[in-house]
Specification:
about 35% strand; alpha+beta; about 130 residues; 3-stranded mixed beta sheet; single chain; 1 helix
Length: about 130
């Protein structure tokens, strides 16, 4: 009776690391970033609060791989567009998630810049 009891305890304890390992697997977020018309936006910074980061290519696609956690915040931003911040809930065992993100353009007023210049004589090193 005592031998079978020890066997059960050893089996239960040795199974714990594999359960913990399943919870900390890798998750890959892939997707596309487009404007309101559905056109892809290149060079968009895409990152997570868990350290994963990527930049969209010419087709607006991105891919980020990170260690699984049940919630992750996705941050998508590019100059000239309103940033998008989404909190994602990823179920245990999920290894990939496909996303589609639309960015809205924003207008920026840029003040004019006045640049003054003078030519320096390279021989005399004077103006």
């Amino acid at each position: 009776m005592m031998k079978s009891f020890r066997f059960i305890i050893v089996t239960a304890v040795s199974a714990l690391p594999s359960v913990a390992g399943a919870q900390t697997g890798l998750v890959t977020l892939t997707g596309f970033v487009t404007d309101r018309n559905g056109s892809p936006i290149p060079l968009v910074d895409v990152s997570t609060t868990l350290g994963g980061q990527s930049r969209t290519d010419a087709d607006g696609s991105f891919s980020i791989t990170y260690a699984w956690k049940d919630t992750v915040t996705l941050v998508v931003r590019r100059v000239g567009y309103s940033p998008v911040i989404k909190q994602l809930v990823i179920e245990r065992g999920v290894t990939s998630v496909q996303l589609s993100v639309k960015l809205a353009e924003i207008a920026h007023d840029i003040a004019p810049a006045i640049i003054n210049g003078k030519q320096v004589d390279p021989v005399l090193n004077k103006i």
